[in-house]
Amino acid sequence: MMAMLSHTHRSDSRKLQMKLNLIAFAAMAGLLVIAPFAIYPLLVVQILCFALFACAFNLLMGFTGLLSFGHAMFYGWSAYIAGHVSKEYGATPELALLFGMATGAMLGLIVGALAIKRQGIYLAMITLAFAQMMFFLAVQMHAITGGEDGLQGIPRNRLFGLIDIDSTGRVYWFALGVFLLAFLAMWRIKRSPFGENLKAIRENEPRAISLGCNTARYKLAAFVLSAAFSGLAGSLKAISLQLATLTDVGWQISGEVILMTLVGGVGTIFGPVIGAVVVVGLEQMLLGFDDWIPVIYGSVFVLCVLFFRKGILGQIQHVFQKD
Amino acid sequence: MDHLSIQLIAGQVLIGIINGSFYALLALGLAIIFGMLNIVNFMQGALYMLGAFMAYIVGEHLGIGYWGALIVCPILVGLFGIVLERVFFRAIYDIDPVYGLLLTFGLAIIIEGIFRIIFGSAGIPYSIPDSLRGGINLGFVFLPYYRGWVVLVSLVVCLGTWLAIEKTPIGARLRAATENPGAVRTFGINVPLMVTCTYGFGVALAGLAGVMAAPIYSVSPQMGTSILIVTFAVVVIGGLGSIVGAIVAGYGLGIIEGLTKVFFPEASSTVVFVAMAIILLLRPKGLFGRMA
């Protein structure tokens, strides 16, 4: 009887949670629709790309419990490839995004297969090292990446060969559409049986193994998905902002995406989006004091790790769950 | 093989051994700290940079010169590390070690950022001490005295540390505390003090490497992070828990890097990472490592 009661209670709270999430999604979408009328649209696009990137990163860190310190390689290299195919072969934006995602997925498959041979802290070091290797390759492979100059003036070709997106106003709606679709897709993945398995691995891997779950395969799949969506974020950035440079593939970006996820709330659905807003907002506030940005980021890192490990959204949820 | 190419190879191998000396010192510090604190110290690179800047500040401006700096700077860096350990690390010992990496990453970019604000990104020149200028022609290779000195110091420090940990009573306690801190504490040994001292020693090694690097590489705020990431690969190859692994992999990869510069220069910046990939395929726990 007690068990049944608590079961109905739990499913009630799940329904409530779902309802709250749907309201939050509607609110987020609504805010994003009016945002470009209040804020410079390309700045919001930048937030959208980072938010998408952080959500993709959260797929791995938050939902599977694997810390990658090298996600810049997926973001940056996808930006290069999407930019390259748009520039050199006139690829349409949807194709460029697909190429970018495929780049992320392929890199994710190779790096992931090697990295998940070790766990925890090793995984972070291995991914960081591979990302550095991909950074050096980006410096050397001028033909694709443009070396030190990067790719500039990447054309915004017609969407599906038909729709003109080549203006600040239009590209915003394109970026928003891609973001919302990808966000829903990742949310769906989290709620799927596959996502439940990832959660089981995060909570207790030996137990998941003993229940017959092939955890290595699941971890690799999560790694590839996370890399693919990071790739989508990178290529969206390349097309919308028309730029792909060494900055996108450097270790600082890997740190930034961790920071966004950590600030917003690791493992929450909307946390990474909030984190992206906070980080880009900080950057804007510090315009003109660029030198201070690393110091501020570092301090936020330290404060989050010491006092605020749940992040903004995690902390809010924690307070509400207590009542 | 003609005479010239032997000289070329010997020259690059020598450069490799010198780079390897720095990898080995940094990896050794990482290994000792990881063994005792279960933390991957991302600050190791920033503290190496701090050592190099201190050699410049203390050595040039306080007038104690290179030799004074060589003694004073590692001690100062070690003390600085001890302060950071006491202030920041207590809160994270009992949680996932991943947070240790994130915390030290945050501290590292703060330190690096502050130095960039003060000194800018451009390098600062630091000259070789007068007594170690010049060099000797060994026939097959020209050995600058200073570089020979760096290799010598690094070898002595690495071997000395290894011997101290493997053969002395203090080292035995350290190994025991690494294995089972709870049990060692019941024997009346002050484990937290040991942890703090270990951290201080580990980062002092980074400081020492920094002082010795100052006359060779240009002293700049970003010098630490780039070498640290290579050192991470070195540590993965050697096996993170292993002192011997850190030393052998450090020198070994330096030499491999040097040889790559001769035969396939385009790959010289990436060869260490390729080596890491191969090791992960063939022997995931590292050359000398135990599986974590």
From TrEMBL, chain B:
Where it sits in the cell: the answer is: Cell membrane
User: Transmembrane stretches, by residue range?
Assistant: 6-32, 39-58, 64-89, 101-126, 146-165, 227-256, 262-282
Tell me the leader sequence span: none
In the record, what terms sit under GO molecular function? transmembrane transporter activity
Q: Name one Pfam family in it.
A: BPD_transp_2
User: What topology does the record note for this protein and the membrane?
Assistant: Multi-pass membrane protein
Q: Which InterPro entries does the UniProt record give?
A: ABC_transp_permease, BCAA_transport_permease
A single GO BP = amino acid transport
Q: Which GO terms describe its cellular component?
A: plasma membrane
Sorted UniProt keywords: Amino-acid transport, Cell membrane, Membrane, Transmembrane, Transmembrane helix, Transport
Q: What family is reported?
A: Belongs to the binding-protein-dependent transport system permease family. LivHM subfamily.
> Know the name of this protein?
Branched-chain amino acid ABC transporter permease
